[in-house]
Amino acid sequence: MIDILMLSTEHIDIYTQYSIPIWKKYCDKHGYNFCHYGEKLIPDMAFTWSRIKMIQDHFKKTDAEFVMMVDADTLLYDNRFGLKLEDLISKYMNGNKKILFQKDGSDRFGIYFSHNFKLSWELRRWVLPNAGFNIMKNCTEVHEFIDMWLELGQGKLRHLANIHPRTQNILLRGLMTEQKYDNLIGYLPSSIVSKRNTTFCRHLSAMTKEQIASVIKLEYNKIFDQVK
Ligand SMILES: [Mn+2]
Questions:
Q1: How many angstroms does the Cα of residue 130 sit away from the middle of ligand 1?
Q2: pTM beyond cutoff 0.70
Q3: Are β-strands 129-137 and 66-70 bridged in parallel, bridged antiparallel, or unpaired?
């Protein structure tokens, strides 16, 4: 069993009216649970931190084998709707890996480019994780990982928690500097999920709400026209 989590409040209804039905339909097709959360869960931190809290809370009440979290500004392509998460997991979650992140970059002319050169250079990591899309195994190591992510953000690294890129900041500067946490992390290829040049899931960002809505609506129309 796989649970797919999304957190969004009413202020982005303009595009979740398209992204939520897409993900629901994908879940129905493959027998996954779509779990939508609609509230800010940590009052005194930037909204994005509520996603990590949502994951922590969800792990306490599910017995799904995998939990996936997707941002509300994501769409699935109509022509890859048949792609199963189980296949992605068995192909990319190998060795000791227990968490797969989206890479924060994309391929251009067959070459991978980081979307954050400055941070990549600073950390000497060409591939950085995008915290807005991940697949996690429901196991003790991952629970610990999520607990530590929040603990660092609310404690020792609190001074970085609300500085862009917020949750990713703590992930990179807190968790991933420790071998035992870094070892758990793997990546999906950017051809599967990215901001651009991707075929399965597109994760939009740095766009206005209206732009996001119009891009997702295009794919929404294709997906829901087929039913008629
Ligand atoms: Mn996003």
A1: 9
A2: yes
A3: antiparallel
